[in-house]
Amino acid sequence: MTKIQAGKSRASGRITLAMVAQRAGVATMTASRAISQPDMVSQALRDRVQQAVDELGYVPNRAARALASSQSKVIAVLVPSLSNAVFTEVLAGIQDALDADDYQILIGNTRYSDREEEKLIATYLQSNPDGMLLSGLTHSPRVQQILAANRMPVVSMMDMSADPERLSVGFSQFQAGHAMTRYLLDKGHKRIGFIGAQLDERTLRRAEGYRKAMVDAGLADIKLEVMVGEPSTIALGAELLGRMLAQAPDCDAIFCCNDDLAHGAIYQCQRRGIAVPSQLAVCGFNDLPASAWMNPSLTTIGTPRYRIGFEAATLLRSVIKGEQPAHRQIDLGFTLMARESA
Amino acid sequence: MTKIQAGKSRASGRITLAMVAQRAGVATMTASRAISQPDMVSQALRDRVQQAVDELGYVPNRAARALASSQSKVIAVLVPSLSNAVFTEVLAGIQDALDADDYQILIGNTRYSDREEEKLIATYLQSNPDGMLLSGLTHSPRVQQILAANRMPVVSMMDMSADPERLSVGFSQFQAGHAMTRYLLDKGHKRIGFIGAQLDERTLRRAEGYRKAMVDAGLADIKLEVMVGEPSTIALGAELLGRMLAQAPDCDAIFCCNDDLAHGAIYQCQRRGIAVPSQLAVCGFNDLPASAWMNPSLTTIGTPRYRIGFEAATLLRSVIKGEQPAHRQIDLGFTLMARESA
DNA sequence: CTGAAAGCGCTTACAG
DNA sequence: CTGAAAGCGCTTACAG
């Protein structure tokens, strides 16, 4: 008979597996098996243990399980922002993909900072996660070293990696930036401006796509670029619209690196009496909910955020299970949504 | 000398405290103290242990610590939505408040479902959280019972509780709904409609505030209410604007229970050629970033989301530490933002 | 199908 | 200021 209450108790006061086992009249490890691997146990025993669990209100202690099994059942997810709807939709996809699997999801907000990312990863390592879902392709040397040293399964989200070994789920930010610029060129625009903020890697890749299209068309002009490091907001979009027009007054179209900036640019045009799109075409990136509804509706790039999260989590789970994935890179593509604003 | 490698090893392969201690030439528990309670240890020892930690790249195992100390350093946070900017700002406040304290934050999305909330709480209990931050005042009997049985410190966010014992941080949803309606009445509107969606407890409280003001003014009319259980979106706001006008064609103002619905209503007015506010006043609730920028700018209620998260987390932390809080209820108030739309 | 023993990596009393 | 022992609550081999 297991001794259940020690004298100078350090016990937590919670119901333990040992108590459940005693109540069911079995060994602790038998109770453990009845709960964790019910198939390896007789029906009668399963029922007996389950009854004891219910009567006692037993809740397994995850820390003890993690320690004994050296399997944390934790997945860490790092996103650069929680105020950006793009990433909350990614998170929704991740949660739906992992829902049934008893994974604990640790959500970290790096705030677009490498230092924050390092700190979060270092902290999450204490929880010994089974794998990580990271946003973006580029990470600080320190992060790369930590990840390599721990042989942590990692799936990168949002962009496609050039490295075929790397697990990544997303779409080509470069191609999307290129496609939107081509669309504007095909509409006859010649002085197409690019407004970029935050200057995270995705914005930079979109800008590269824009530049490639402009160079190939023989229309590149550095005056047509407004790039700032501040976070993208509607207010900033309004401000940068002004800066662009000051810098390139003959600008006939503006490609904003995301919808927030584009919304701000359009609202500012309305306040200044600039007709969109007849005087100035404006387009964005991501297709946020408001973009289809505002007046004029916004021409933008639709991106598969939810699916990125879902597929990335599914891929990570299969890798954690030791499976060899059919594809290490999953390109989910993008959709150009041609609407009224451009 | 501690035996470091057993034969049939179940070891995780990670660096352990015992290895650090051996390298530093001290006992394991001395190393533990040097790390966790550096003040209780000599400077020389502290340095020696720190050096061993650095050389070995030691990362403490959180599961082991939690198990041994029966302190998880986990705080669980439940919000009804991650796609709603209101709650992501609450989360930002929570994270900032808890940042320095080595707390692991578990973020759960209940999707406005009591069943989901029950499931998440049951799951989080496995991690033995030190406390919980819950959204809203009303919870299912099962949740209440679980929380009581575990004597879990809980702080409720978003609304003010009528129960003085209950820890809550927010503002009065009822008063805010009442204030906005009074504002419209004072502007001379008589046929003021209310559009409510999701019908979560906050929306219902706002509606009660609306009704009180209308009844007191002798202007209440059930025809002026459109209430649906679907999630609030811009698209739904556009649709419900139509339903309201069909149901109460003489309606001269509409109070939408949140900004998303109000945005949709205004966009729809623009499409139908209804002038806002001259033909129809429209106002919202929450003051999302777009509300100040759109044309017309939106009259709405500014709510202290970030501060709610920050103060709620601060309060919870003090309660976890065993402190007796000066105030169990923290009313952060709201601000009526009078703009162009109403 | 079931169980006695050992161990996961830490921290908590208790001594010295 | 430092340490030997025991224990947190589970699971992993290994037997039977």
Automatic annotation (TrEMBL), chains A, B:
<dbReference type="GO" id="GO:0003700">
    <property type="term" value="F:DNA-binding transcription factor activity"/>
</dbReference>
<dbReference type="InterPro" id="IPR028082">
    <property type="entry name" value="Peripla_BP_I"/>
</dbReference>
<dbReference type="Pfam" id="PF00532">
    <property type="entry name" value="Peripla_BP_1"/>
</dbReference>
<dbReference type="InterPro" id="IPR001761">
    <property type="entry name" value="Peripla_BP/Lac1_sug-bd_dom"/>
</dbReference>
<dbReference type="InterPro" id="IPR000843">
    <property type="entry name" value="HTH_LacI"/>
</dbReference>
<keyword id="KW-0238">DNA-binding</keyword>
<protein>
    <submittedName>
        <fullName>Transcriptional regulator, LacI family</fullName>
    </submittedName>
</protein>
<dbReference type="GO" id="GO:0000976">
    <property type="term" value="F:transcription cis-regulatory region binding"/>
</dbReference>
<keyword id="KW-0805">Transcription regulation</keyword>
<keyword id="KW-0804">Transcription</keyword>
<dbReference type="InterPro" id="IPR010982">
    <property type="entry name" value="Lambda_DNA-bd_dom_sf"/>
</dbReference>
<feature type="domain" description="HTH lacI-type">
    <location>
        <begin position="15"/>
        <end position="69"/>
    </location>
</feature>
<dbReference type="Pfam" id="PF00356">
    <property type="entry name" value="LacI"/>
</dbReference>
